[in-house]
Amino acid sequence: MKTIIEPFRIKVVEPITMTTSEQREQRLREANFNLFKLKARDVLIDLLTDSGTGAMSSDQWAGVMRGDESYAGAESFFRFQDVLRRITGIENVLPTHQGRASERILFELVCTPGCIIPNNNHFDTTRANVEHSGGQAVDLVIPEGRIAKSRHPFKGNMDVARLEALFESVGADRIPLVMVTITNNSGGGQPVSLENLRAVRAVCDKFHTPLFLDACRFAENAYFIKLREPGQSHRNAAEIAREVFSLADGATISAKKDGLVNIGGVLLMRDPALARRASNLLIMTEGFVSYGGVAGRDLEAMAQGFEEVLNEDYLQYRIRSADYLAGKLMSAGIAIVEPLGGHAIYVDATAFCPHIPPEHFPGQALAVGLYRHAGIRTCEIGSVMFGAGGHHVDMELVRFALPRRVYTQSHIDYVAEASGELFEKRSSLRGLRIVEEPTTLRHFSAAFEEIQ
Ligand SMILES: *Cc1c(COP(=O)(O)O)cnc(C)c1O
Predict the structure, then answer these.
(1) How far apart are CA 60 and CA 294, in angstroms?
(2) Domain with 28 in it: what CATH number?
(3) What are all long-range contacts of 124-127, with beta carbons under 8 Å and residues at least 24 apart?
(4) Mean pLDDT of the region 65-72
(5) pTM score > 0.90 for this model?
(6) Which of 190, 216, 260 maximizes ligand 1 atoms within 8 Å of its Cβ, making it the mutation to test the pocket?
């Protein structure tokens, strides 16, 4: 059979709101053309992010009911710990409220002023936590990872030669650990190969330096290894994930992605001494070691989510959904970043609206246009997000992020059709200017007006 169906049926439904074109026009104006300021109830299909927006399964909801809310020694913690030990082979498992809490604890422990943390690409919270602890965040993704048109199958790979050169030039004592992000979110959700991870591990061994993974999308990464890496197609995603973790000394994980939950995180460490110090910090700001900032019911939902995410039917459907939308957009003539990453499609806004110069934010114009035309919310990743102070950005993109298990094929068909219709009348899209902006992270709250 060619058709890949959603490998679930629907037990609970959540209505979404149809709006008229006049209503959307008014909402846009009230939000000053900033889609972060829309009320979610005014959005028909929300592709703003894949973080914490997934749907939980009936077994996860059953776990929520079963959650043991004892302060210490809760059964739910032991289940959570067992599942993560089984998936990763890493002994020390600390729950946190989300990925950035794991990062904060890790970097507070390992960073000293002037230290350097190499990564393929730091995610923005990772970079912020490294810098907050006095370190410098260095991105060493392979050159292909920076080129939109490159078809390299593992564009998230780390440049191993540059990593080695960095060790040679600054000395291993300034590099407390090496991090690799799987999949590489800031680089478009691009995967990292097993071969590359083994090579990074070898460099870490040579310089006696630990390797940590930012493993938010470890299951999607494992599935890409199965699909794209020679010699891996016969293995299942769980085996591949297990080998990936076997190369690492620890990991930070946001469970809001491949944990299939709405909130939660994990910090994993092999070194028992480091884990003890991490536990002390955890108790100070997150919570006791057996719940770490979430409820017992959240630990149950995470434990179940981490098991379900490695199901091959799920992963096939997940990766195929992105592929399906990408295919439809491309056949409508819309340019996207290839090859596809796991969790989102990135549309090239410069190619979509060539009549809008970067200083008038083509990505924002496209995102506003999609909401105005069809009630779809996407996210600008370009000059609005990264161009404060006249900073140059390489690409003006609009991200269509796919929440996990939330939308069906007909929702995706609607998104593709609406995007195609907008593409046909793309010359009507108008650029914007910023009329008010905060000093940092302006994309969340800036106010825009349209250029007539
Ligand atoms: C989401 C994300 C984080 C941060 O996790 P939060 O749960 O949002 O705090 C870190 N790294 C990567 C790669 C992510 O995608």
Answers:
(1) 15
(2) 3.90.1150.10
(3) 124/186, 125/99, 125/100, 126/100, 126/179, 126/181, 126/214, 126/252
(4) 96
(5) yes
(6) 216
